[in-house]
Amino acid sequence: MMAAIKSMPMSGKVGAVLAACWLFLALFGPWLAPHSANEIVAYDVFEPLGGDYILGTDYIGRDVFSRILDGTRFTIFIPLLAAALACSVGTLIALYSAVSHPRTDEIISRFMDALISIPSKIFSLVMIAAFGSSVPILLTITAISYMPGSFRIARSLAVNVANLDFVTVARTRGESRLYLAVKEILPNILHPMLADFGLRFVFVVLLLSSLSFLGLGVQPPEADLGSLVRENLSGLAEGAPAVIVPAIAIATITIAVNLVIDSLRGAATYAARGR
Amino acid sequence: MKVIFQLIIKRIGLSIITLFIVSAVVFFIANLLPGDAAQEMLGQSATPEAVAALREAYGLNDPPLTRYAKWLTGLVTGDAGMSLANSRPVSELISSRLSKSLLLAGLTTVIAVPFAMLLGIVAAMYSGRRVDKIMNIATLSMVAVPEFLLATIFVLIFAVELNWLPSLSYIPADAGVYEYFRAFALPVATLCIVLSAQMARMTRAAVLEQLSQPYVEMALLKGSPLSRAVLRHALPNAVGPIVNAVALSLSYLLGGVVIVEVIFNYPGVASLMVDAVTNRDMPLLQACAMLFCTGYLILVLIADLSAILANPKLRTGG
Fold first, then answer.
1. Which of A14, A28, A17, A138 is CA-nearest to residue A72?
2. Membrane spanning segments where (chain A) (predicted)?
């Protein structure tokens, strides 16, 4: 782990440090916050940066800094869980598909291809209209949206591995399909699937923030970073930091993770060339 | 030639099957919770008789499969039912907005495609050099930035600080070219940046793939300059993959347009769809969702067909 970070280019290191900071804030944010997230602390709304309140105040005079510290856990943990769900379920179905009869594989793949053809934002909008937008439902919706993509990648990796000699040997040895999937194929696709997990995380952060920005994501009194942008939109005309700062916060999370994945990928391709 | 033809027919057939599955998924998600649409329209104080009558009128009492079949045949014949929120035909609501969304998407495409291709080709030509590394980080960041951040920053700079452009996209009835430009500048710029970043990355990869081929090395070894090797040798072979990349990136536009139309109050299909979600107006929502999915499938189809047509092994019929 440390070696992997050390071998990264500068951009990757910056990304790793930033991502670690955000994870820390997501874990301990509510305790670090100087005020309670829903407490109205100032008479003035949309105060500028660096006054009594370091990131200003929002549209009803709450402390923006505290609200960001409080909202970060939604923006980090819902996507983390959703991405983990999407990747693990996608990988499991892909493993099953890869060791199954070609016809089963064909049916599963065709269905997943159809699901991929529904753009994630559109899919989420339909789901939210049907089921509402509580946190568990948002988690489920975002996980389902990105599961087929994970499946597609895991399946193409798994099919490649399934055709290699050592799997054929195991198969002729009479090993069960479960053994083939878990002991022979899974260890060999785990590493690329971790990179895929990072990508899914970025996708879900963006999707969830967009939904909250539309007012269809995390609902009041809770607020994630996307909700903060939405509720303060009326302050845009006076250039209030309450609008811009949460939006920039989201961007730093996603850019940081993207930089890490990109440099890990770069390292992986160099290693492959070296061999 | 025959092989290509068969492949194309097969690919189009697959798209139609996919569209069919998509329509089933959309319909059954939207109708999973059984018919409280009538209740919702009339409100809590409605009499049970009124609710029952309305359910009858909208065919909400039929079994789901019958309703699905009715809905699907309706869609194909251009009749998507009545909007629950304002009792107008869905097709009428959508058609008045569709041209506006297409205009926004079209303008974005016309600007973003040449720009992204230029970026992508330059990055591929100088791959590994400083220009490429800077562009890599820049495009990587732009891909990861939420559309509403770009939009709010643009509004802050050009509408609030400089006061050059309006922050909402309003087109008066007698608008001239200048009003059109002012109304479209910010939405189009926002979409262009997100789209170009994605497209430039994919174009770079497509060109780089060609540059690593032996024939390009040959061209370079015989002394042709890099620009000639790229423009005369690599680029003609990269056309298929580039069209593929462009079509795939354009599908990102479908998601971006949702946010941009809402933030700039632009009267397109995407903002109509968001309203439909807030009002739980299922007939309208389903029709909008199918419209977006069809658009997406067409783009992916174009991407795949260009890849098929560009494959020289298939072109010669071998």
1. A28
2. 76-101, 122-147, 197-219, 239-261
The tokens describing B92, both together, are 């009428």
By residue range, what is the domain housing residue A72? 10-268
Q: Tell me what the mean pLDDT of segment B174-182 comes to.
A: 72
The ipTM value here is: 0.84
pLDDT value of position B318: 41
- Torsion angle (degrees, nearest 10) of CA B37, B43, B47, B49: -20
Chain A residues within 8 A of B31 when measuring between CB atoms: 130
In a domain, A273, yes or no: no
Query: For chain A, what is the domain count?
Result: 1
pTM of the model: 0.87
The more confident residue out of A193 and B44 is A193
Can you state the angle between helices B90-125 and B130-144, rounded to 10 degrees? 160
Q: Is residue A35 included in any domain, yes or no?
A: yes
User: Can you give the pLDDT at residue B34?
Assistant: 55
B285 and A254 within 8 Å at the Cβ level: the answer is: no
Q: Does A237 touch chain B (CB under 8 A)?
A: yes
| Res A268 pLDDT > 60 | no
Q: CB A119 to CB B274 under 8 A?
A: no
A14 within domain boundaries:
yes
CATH number of the domain to which A177 belongs: 1.10.3720.10
Q: Which residues contact A14 (CB under 8 A, 6 or more apart)?
A: A256, A259
Average pLDDT of chain B? 83
The reply to whether A2 falls in a domain is: no
Q: Best residue in B15, B101, B150, B152 to probe A by mutation, most A CBs within 10 Å?
A: B152
